Amino acid sequence: MTEMVERVARAIYEGNKSPATAAWDYFAEKGDSPFARLYRDMARTAIAAIEEAGYVIVPRVPTEEMRKAGMDAAITEMWLRPEGNRGVEGLAAYAAMLAAAPGVKDGQP
Questions:
Q1: Do 10 and 39 sit in the same domain of this protein?
Q2: d(CA 60, CA 79)
Q3: Taking the alpha carbons of 16, 22, 28, 31 in that order, is the dihedral positive or negative?
Q4: What is the residue range of 22's domain?
Q5: Partner of 17 at 20 to 30 A CA spacing, among 1, 28, 70, 90?
Q6: Model-level pTM?
């Protein structure tokens, strides 16, 4: 999630800076400067608001771990369901892929 915080902090900063303001890299290189901390805190707040609304941030292209989790869940559902109750394997795969996404801990975003 650190990479996402950094990306969002940079976007917030660059969306609000004036032409005379230093580049984000200047503050990011300083690591723990008060200015960089402020924007990282804003980024964490924005990401938390997204998650509190029930959304998660996942890669556009699933990671290998996400693909494997989705496939495993779909196969398990196909074996557990009688022929007449098929169709839920897609939902199981989706939930498993989200749980395996980067930045998700213990299956919860």
A1: yes
A2: 29
A3: negative
A4: 2-52
A5: 1
A6: 0.67
